[in-house]
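Task card 7
Instruction: Convert sequence to structure tokens.
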Amino acid sequence: MSHADHEGRDGRRLRTRLVGAGRRPSEQFGYVNTPIYRGSTVLFPTYHDLVTRNAPFTYGTAGSPTTKALTDAWSELSGAAGTVLAPTGLAAVTLALMSVVAAGDHILVVDSIYRPSRIFCDGVLKRLGVETEYFDPLMGTEVARLMRANTSVVFLETPGSQTFEVPDVPAIAALARERGICSILDNTWATPLFFPPHARGVDLAIEAGTKYLSGHSDLLLGLVSANARLLPQLQATADAFAMCPGPEDVFLALRGLRTLELRLREAQSQGLAMARWLEARPEVARVLHPAFPSCPGHELWRRDFHGASGLFSVLLRPAPQKAVAAMLDGLELFGMGFSWGGYESLVIPFDCRPYRTATDWRPGGPALRFSIGLEDVEDLKDDLARGFERLAAAS
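Output:
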């Protein structure tokens, strides 16, 4: 797989770029890291500067040196013309959508989308006169038959949040571009390091910085990057909403950025080791991991991705709910919580049948989503082995 997507204009490789992206020590009295700038008011030295907005920063909601360091770095890494920030990953989703939809529009959304994104489409966008239609993530260019004269957006996620189907993003993005339709991608699972969104043809790319960019489960942040065509619309909408993340969160995201590649590589290694171990367990019917040939869209993952993160799902063989509860309640190293991408391992049960409309989800047994952290893999296996013993005892 080519890594040309990861070389900067100066030819420097990814890990080198991660260390230097967005940093300007000469502007910070020599300090390595851009400090936290807090504030609302920015003072102008003259009347002329005030009325012409002649300053690099004009008001707290318009950004600061701290936010600029992050947006510059993220634009470089994602191959974008520019980036805006939002206070959460979901806020980034809503900001991207509101930048390109209007009353009377029809939008196409992959059926495996992050559920809160679906709730926003079915609630707020419906109330504003936007019709959402969901489609099978494995349709590929067959999605063309769902496109209408008023279709304004195709919204993708790769892989799916819980079921991990891999859609053909480059083909669908190219089809959308030919028809003047905006393509939006939630790229949180892979980050631009493992899936360069704009090099794959996407107009707007969303990242929940809460996850791997943070890496420590201690901040909330969203990012939306854009190509040159869509950047003015995105920036205008971001200015109108003024959904600003806190400066401390931005600073922590910048700190996380420097080690992002190292942590993602370790997440990939740990995740694959645990997924292979789980696949061999008699209690497991199937592992849903894009790097596994059995995962829908695996060949697309091999073609388009540079790696895999540490998030995947497993389908257990039929077992009563009380047995699953006994398994999970006794775990010592796996916490139960609605996030991922931190240094700690997590697991949640899920059933997406109530919120799938374009596909028929038939797991055949309980489904669990795992986020593999940085604990020793053998300790994680031991913890789950004891959990499977409790599952069997309670079945």
